[in-house]
Amino acid sequence: MAEREAAKGRVHLVGAGPGDPELLTLKAVRLLERADAVVHDRLVSAEILAMAPARARMIPVGKAAGFHSVPQERINEILAELAREGLEVVRLKGGDPFIFGRGSEEAAYLRARGIAVDICPGITSAQGAAAGTGVPLTHRGLASGVRYVTGHRQGSAPLDLDWQGLSDPATTLVIYMGATNIAEIAFHLMAAGRPGATPVMAVSGATTAAEQRHVSRLDRIGLEMRLSPLPSPVLFIVGDVVRLADAGGGERLTLSAAAIGAGAANRIAAALKGI
Amino acid sequence: MAEREAAKGRVHLVGAGPGDPELLTLKAVRLLERADAVVHDRLVSAEILAMAPARARMIPVGKAAGFHSVPQERINEILAELAREGLEVVRLKGGDPFIFGRGSEEAAYLRARGIAVDICPGITSAQGAAAGTGVPLTHRGLASGVRYVTGHRQGSAPLDLDWQGLSDPATTLVIYMGATNIAEIAFHLMAAGRPGATPVMAVSGATTAAEQRHVSRLDRIGLEMRLSPLPSPVLFIVGDVVRLADAGGGERLTLSAAAIGAGAANRIAAALKGI
């Protein structure tokens, strides 16, 4: 690369996808392979990090069990400092940098300081979990849309979500960062009218060798996750589409009509009619 | 490949992403490169289709302007027939096969007939449009979640969406297949309480050389799209995050506070404070 170009650093916010290295985009791989520095979440796997050249500076930031995470303000500064050194910087984040994960705050910080930044999208954990389990995020007659929310609570503040809007039975609900509060979230959803028999799937480590899943219903998931929690981070998919999950080997889960309620069972039967 | 394996066909439902061939996943490329047959939407670009081997049968189905689309039932049958011939079949769909696009119906049809099927996720048009325009789908203080809906009407039926739930100002709304009905959709959203000054971005051909975008507000987008429509398909992103859009060359769009309303402007200012 020409020296003039090298003197002009740049930050690429890159989605590392849900876990499986094969779910990186071609663009993400190209950017990684020519990176001078990689600032990465601790959840990004060694296999993905190994795609960066040996000369690249590797800087772990972000959350993982047992580590203090680097404050967001400091991450912003690190990115700016590296770019000012004239480096090609890859900021590697799990999933997609523009869906949760504060990528847009990093982009705004850098742009405000005149530093070039661009975005490379990534497969979300929700998409990875859906593909791996056979649970579609939309399906005619079962879910006409999908909604991603975060179940993370800021400090001791109450969970302030749009519960009434979230109760729409025709929308698949994907809950990120909800493991700690899933009992409370389920309670609010039921109070807003979502039936207790609504199917719920919890997925941990989607698309990796460590993937674990648990299929339940809204009125039981809170207790079950307390009794036998899955390794963090856990993603929850809520809605009738969960009924279409593979049972590992390609068989459908046999959630009975009694378990999921007659109303849901009828809607599912109608949606599957003729297939 | 061993003959015994070759005799056992398989269907891979593969996301082709939003348009840019570099936004395919490594897995999608691997599956394409070893495909015996590719059954593809007409919107998938020639550059992506060229990744399949020369020997592969290429079968266009699905919608494009000026073509009659192959009925879904016939697509299902084609996939089953090819798999029964013992072929590795790639069903290539724009975006992600499990978000709209009826991938889960194809999967259910094939599984019910004992045909092996697996899913390879893809970057959605929404993610592509977000990354390309600098508009995040979530952003602290502006959007705590994101919701994908379809604005497509079945026949002459009224648009039956969860308007009250869709009016939540803290959720970014992504509308697929909404170009025909955007005026009606905007009307319903405003009637349900979403302010007329809510920013809206229409994106056509996201992540391709033909990308076009138009930034407006909820109370104007219907008329403007009628007066100067964008080439189909058009994606709409609705919410305060649109304020963060790049103006092409990396500059922010200067939507004035007057244009977007003081309430939205204040929320945006608060969210950007300290960045």
UniProtKB/TrEMBL annotation, chains A, B:
Pfam families: TP_methylase. Its EC number is 2.1.1.107. GO terms for biological process: methylation; siroheme biosynthetic process. CDD domains: SUMT. Pathway: Porphyrin-containing compound metabolism; siroheme biosynthesis; precorrin-2 from uroporphyrinogen III: step 1/1. GO terms for molecular function: uroporphyrin-III C-methyltransferase activity. PANTHER family: S-ADENOSYL-L-METHIONINE-DEPENDENT UROPORPHYRINOGEN III METHYLTRANSFERASE, CHLOROPLASTIC (PTHR45790:SF3), SIROHEME SYNTHASE-RELATED (PTHR45790). This is uroporphyrinogen-III C-methyltransferase. It comes from Meinhardsimonia xiamenensis.
